[in-house]
Design brief:
Layout: E1 2-6, H1 10-22, E2 26-30, H2 33-42, E3 47-51, H3 59-68, E4 75-79, H4 84-92, E5 97-100, H5 105-117, E6 126-129, E7 132-135, E8 140-143, E9 146-148, H6 152-163, E10 169-170, H7 171-178, H8 190-202, E11 208-210, E12 214-216
Parallel strand pairs: 1-2, 1-3, 3-4, 4-5
Antiparallel strand pairs: 6-7, 7-8, 8-9, 10-12, 11-12
Helix pairs in contact: 2-3, 6-8
């Protein structure tokens, strides 16, 4: 099993490398985000251990780049930020799991083994429903064949609802995935306003309101 460790703290990186080698893993260390991204794009690894705070390119940017380039290698993100917002942001940008520093090395090894056994998720690049098509790679939306311009939050909200067709999404869940679980937004009408924008641009029938619960795109 080959593992890429993208970690700028030499002591942490060396400790992880040694533990992995005891487990008979081939471990490569990259000291910054740019070098880690370069290695991950030109080599095949079974797992990537990725620190969030890195010089030259942070962990979020590295993770997002790899996913945009079609790399589905399992990523375990290391972060010193224990807040929900940081964790959700990491998972939403493409990480498969996270571990908060300081961590137990045995737990890290267990999580790496688990990720290695887990099939890499396949996220469909083209989503469609009721005459609306979303190209997540090109970041384009068409409604009945005509292009529609969406703001970044509108696109993220539409993509989330499209990926969960047939499942009602409550406002708290939508805020967590689209806005990062900002407490100030939890008590506002932000979601309702953005749904209204989408209905105005894509038609009123695409997104259905489930009274007292949230919103739904029927499958």
């Amino acid at each position: 099993m080959s593992v890429l460790i993208i970690e700028d703290n030499r002591t942490v990186a060396e400790n992880i490398r040694r533990c992995l080698e005891v487990e008979r893993c081939a471990a490569t260390v990259a000291p910054d985000g740019e070098e880690g991204a370069r290695l991950a794009l030109v080599n095949e690894y079974d797992c990537i251990i990725l620190d969030l705070n890195l010089p030259r390119m942070d962990g979020m940017a590295v993770c997002a780049l790899l996913r945009r380039e079609g790399r589905n290698t399992p990523i375990l993100m290391l972060t010193a930020r224990a807040g929900k917002r940081a964790i959700i942001a990491g998972l939403d940008c493409g990480a498969d799991d996270y571990l908060v520093k300081p961590f137990d090395m045995e737990e890290l090894l267990a999580r790496v083994r688990t990720l290695r056994r887990r099939p890499a998720p396949v996220r469909a690049p083209i989503l469609s429903a009721h005459g609306v098509t979303v190209d997540t790679n090109a970041h384009e939306v068409h409604c009945k064949g005509r292009p529609v311009a969406l703001a970044p939050r509108e696109f993220a909200l539409l993509e989330h609802l499209m990926r969960h067709q047939g499942v009602v999404q409550d406002r708290t869940t939508l805020i967590a995935h689209v806005w990062g679980e900002d407490d100030e937004l939890l008590f506002s009408h932000t979601v309702d306003v953005h749904v209204s924008f989408l209905r105005r641009k894509l038609g009123k029938r695409l997104i259905r309101t489930v009274p007292g619960v949230g919103y739904l795109i029927d499958d």
